[in-house]
Amino acid sequence: MLVTQDSQAIPNSYFKLVPFSLTKWNSVLVLLSLLFSIPLAVILGSLFFPQIEVWSHLADTVLSDYIVSSLALFLGVGFFSLILGVIPAWLVTMYRFPMSRYLEWALLLPMAMPAYIIAYSYTGMLDVAGPLQSSIRELTGWQYRDYWFPEIRSLGGAITMLSLVLYPYVYLLARAAFIEQSTCVLEVSRTLGCNAANAFRRVALPLARPAIMVGLSLVVMETLADYGTVQYFGVSAFTTGIFRTWFGLGNSLAAAQLSVLLLIFVAVFLYLEKRSRRQAKFYNSGSRYSSLMQQQLNKEQGIFSLVLCATPMILGFIIPIMYLMNLALDTYSEVLGKDFYMLLFNSLSLALVTAVLALCIALFMAYSNRNTHSSLNRFLVRFVSMGYAIPGTVIAVGVLIPFAWFDNTLDAFLTEHFNISSGLLISGTVVTLIFAYLTRFLAVSINTVESALVKIKPVMDEVAKTTGINSANIIKRIHIPMMRGSLLTALLLVFVDVLKELPATLILRPFNFNTLAVRTYELANEERLADAAVPALAIVLVGIIPVIIISNSISRSRAGNDPENDSGK
Amino acid sequence: MKILFILFLVLFQAQINAAEVNIYSARKEALIKPILDEFTKETGINVNLVTGKADTLLKRLEVEGKNTPADILLTVDVARLVRAKEKGLFQVIDSAVLEQTIPEYYRDDENLWFGLSLRSRVIVYAPDRVKAEELTSYEDLADSKWKDSICIRSSSNVYNQSLVASMIAHSGLEKTEAWATALVNNFARSPKGGDRDQIKAVAVGVCDVAIVNNYYLAGMLVSSQDEQVTLAKKIKLFWPNQNAEGAHMNVSGAGILKPAKNKKEAIQLLEYLVSDKAQQWYAEANHEYSINSDIANSKILKSWGKFKADKLNLSLLGKYNADAVLLMDRAGWK
User: Fold this and answer.
1) pLDDT at residue A33 in the model
2) Chain A contacts of B53, Cβ < 8 Å?
């Protein structure tokens, strides 16, 4: 009923795949995708240099451990992020209950928290030497071995920590999808006899599935690429193996090959997910978007919903923030200075520039893809958006190599012919850094933009064209307003991701250039969490400002919402 | 026109005065910048700094090749200095000051890299559960009497790799592997956290003995957080292997890169870093021993008394680094 079969809705010719078409836009798209494919290609290139000895050592000793732990992380974090993301998104979108207006944006807050910071914070609180267990021992007179307490630094702990900071990706995309959907379909489903739970399960969920899956795939990619948390928790995940091979054995080729394995795993997962919903394309077929009527819940239901939605936010944000603030009280006077504002400025400007660029590129790619239907394009865009699954350090090397090669080649050429040395022109500048961010985070913006774009019926474009509107105007007057929520989401996600980004920044940054994340990491890594607390808090605070702004505009972005008479207020 | 001329002069002046030296440093900013600033203040030479993990900096140097802007690579472990040497990144330094100040076992035999500060990987223990007489050496910790009582961090950590490499150098691969396997059997818990975490674990009774770098214990003792001080005071330091070769030592050190454009300034900086003043700073800021003859320059270092330091040529730690990692994998040391 809600599922529009391709063949019915769209002329057959629309989906005919052209292997390659050489229009102007198309060639720009191909060039752009190729450019951002370079780092991944460099990493794939490692496969041409087999490292038999290292691989057989790994297979004999630790590889199975790595695979088991990473699979457990993948399944665990994936599962909990879905639960913590989708259910609250549905509740705050469809119902009114105590605090629901605040929870709408507060649920996003943990997103601003870098995973390694929440890991350090909870370890500080819950570890055997931490305040909680110490007071248990003091109060009861027990010794360490006399009582049981969950070990925070364990596989389970890592799953919990990562889920708590990653679920907002699912939440954000799910909510945007729930908001964008037409109320009509829900109303119709209710008149057809669906109760609320059924309307959610059978109507809203399938409609939002592409968006939820985007959120989920971001979550699992980030999980698999995480190094900071698993390393600190002593979990032998796949990334542990990558860096051990590189740093410990000094073999960066084998490390790159391990990353390729990670990449293949994610590619297979994404492919299977996509295939499982291939038969059905979901479009917002309703054209009427009346205001979303939020249903008022009764007292018990309301409190139940409140607890359900507040828990992940409290655990993922409030508690670690309070802990960090407590630490920061001791140290802030030493940390806040001219130097600190420089960090703030660097982080903020990098995040802003990258987010805007990523959105522009993603829009361009998504559109060229939609309009040309060339299978090569599709493949390239897919390929580019795989960068998220690779640990930042490895991506950074994939960026480092071609840039330095370019600089050195240019330098050699100029020296030979003109006797001018250009040195390293772009390597070691912020350009390289932003390029690396884009390579890593384009996945986020492309997926988010595409998930919104696929919900717009191609028929709408056709109709618009017959009325004489040109493509640019279709985008401006029809698509952008329909996708506003998702576009803002894309912007926000990349912004926050760059703000938190550490490994690529660490390797690629220019001289005397630091960010909040670098400072936080350096201090936390020296086990000086108290000193790290202030820059860590700054990352979170800078991150939540756009979270709140954008969350508000997403609420207001619903098509059919009259901006003058805003029902969201 | 006049203004342009003055502007030109100013810019030109700036060009002349801009003596500088560029460092890629695996030592974190907070633990090196203050002394670099001091150097700039005294000499007028600007120091530009990028910090990062040693191996990623090595990679960056490798791919940047002869156009790299870096003059110096600074690391916190000798294994990475040796790796940089093997990759052919360093050039020979001819400096009487460095050669006279730094004992030959703490620098490269071809003068490609130099140790700048000295630290030891020591045993710490809980005096309420362990008597100092029960402790002797790293080797002894593999004895079954220490079952379930040892804490140590992951084998991914380079300090552990260097310790194991030193044991390979002293007693060979086979013996060391047997030792590591037995040691893993004595672990009180699967390795996690950093060195401070191991100290805390001993203090609260998760384990009785841990192996850590000396400056972490010192850092906790002078911490601004009371609970860190309280925990650190509950444990004691033991100098291992005093009746044998001595306690395992490691250096933070540096080498000058082949393409260095500011070689003169770079040498000047390295010489400054081994000066008495800088060595005093290393001790006060991070509780490291002086690179020449294990001088204790801080109150805490003095309180730990004199000890016998292993005089193993540190190049060997680099040589056996990969062997150490493979060995620890086989031993099941996570």
Assistant:
1) 87
2) 247, 393, 506-507
Confidence of residue A569 (pLDDT cuts 50, 70, 90): very low
* pLDDT(A279) > 60: no
- Does B262 lie in the same domain as B231? no
Give residue A382's identity as a one-letter amino acid code.
Answer: R
Indicate whether B136 pLDDT > 90.
yes
Domain count of the fold of chain B: 2
CA A537, A538, A543, A548 torsion-angle sign:
positive
Task: Verify that B33 and B74 share a domain, yes or no.
Answer: yes
Question: Helix H segments across A95-151?
Answer: 100-106, 115-126, 131-140
Q: How many CB atoms lie within 10 A of CB A498?
A: 28
Residues in B closer than 8 angstroms to A409, CB to CB, are: none
Closest by CA to A273, choosing from A198, A235, A218, A232, is: A218
CB–CB of A331 and B196 under 8 A?
no
- Provide the residue ranges of all domains of chain A, joining segments of one domain with +: 26-42+64-284+299-556
**What residue in A sits closest to B70 (Cα-Cα)?**
A511
Q: What are the tokens at B323?
A: 């062997």
Report if residue B107 sits inside a domain: yes
Question: CB–CB of A302/A103 below 8 Å?
Answer: no
CATH class for the region spanning A26-42+64-284+299-556 = mainly alpha
Q: Among A163-167, A225-229, A313-317, whose mean pLDDT is lowest?
A: A225-229
What is the distance in angstroms between the Cα of A35 and the nearest Cα belonging to chain B? Answer: 19
Decide if pLDDT at A92 tops 60. Answer: yes
Task: Classify the complex by whether its ipTM is higher than 0.85, answering yes or no.
Answer: no
Same domain, B102 and B201: no
B positions 60-119 inside 8 Å of A (CB): 60, 63-69, 83
Report the gap between the CA of B123 and the closest CA in chain A (Å): 19
Query: Do residues B282 and B318 share a domain?
Result: no
CATH of residue B16: 3.40.190.10
B302 lies in a domain? no
Residue B119 β-bridge partners = B250
Which structural domain, as residue segments, surrounds residue B22?
Answer: 2-118+250-293
Report how far apart the first and last C-alpha atoms of chain A are (Å, whole number). Answer: 33
- A–B CB contacts, 8 A cutoff, strictly below: 153
- Kindly state whether residues B269 and B316 are assigned to the same domain: no
Out of A243, A407, A506, name the one closest to residue B67 (CB).
A407
Nearest CB neighbour to A129, from listed B67, B204, B223: B204
